[in-house]
Amino acid sequence: MCQLLGMNCNTPTDIVFSFEGFRRRGGLTDSHADGFGIGFFEGHGLRLFHDDKPSAESPVADLVKHYQIKSENVISHIRKATQGRAQLANTHPFVRELWGRYWLFAHNGHLEDFNPPPGQYYTPVGDTDSERAFCHLLESLRRRYDSPPPQDELFATLAELTAEIRQHGLFNFMLSNGEWLAAHASTLLYYIVRQAPFGQAHLLDNDLSVDFAAVTTPRDRVAVIATLPLTRNETWQQLAVNELVLFRDGAIVARDCPQPPHYLSPEEGLAIARSVGAAECSAF
Fold first, then answer.
1. Is residue 2 flagged as an active site residue?
2. Helices (DSSP H) in 35-123: which residue ranges?
């Protein structure tokens, strides 16, 4: 099973602190060693970095650390392969164009017997269930809408498509078009919204702390989403099983959550991951 990291905020922000903890789970504090990727939106542009080496020892990850790119929407993924070979073509996040914008997608999970018909507009390059799901999502949206629908309608349609796909198995994912970031939990996904008054944070996977009050303004609001919490001294919120949320400007603006909500413990999430031949992060 893989690891997800996302960031959505109301002003361009660097993700270096969170990424320094996250990258260590790719081969150092955990065994997700089949490559990694990270994408940064900058306006209508997108910087995308992939490596088939473990993120804990990747020179590309070192570049991300030193570059300190500022973005309002970021998605990163470290891979533990369950379907598809360990190669660059299968490395997340994946990117495609829809309605004149880049869309970025990363998946943590395992979909069984998921073979949608070939799309007219979107075709996988690699051989993962993840890229098939992404292409199917965009194909369905493009066939249904000639131009971007209102945000509420788009979110409702995304929730409908997500419910169809997750019938095939575990479908934790993040999706962004540079304006917002959607996150869906089948098992484990956590988030934190940092805003004034800012305090200190200490990473779980690295002996590293930061005082956010010293590097932010009172207007800043930053949401960080991860498979499991990245810091030891902050309160992270958990998404419920089968919950879909939409982040914009560092806040949740839409959510689709089954009632009553059900939450898995990290141990339960690990057990489900192992049942499909994989394991999620063991660091907590």
1. yes
2. 59-67
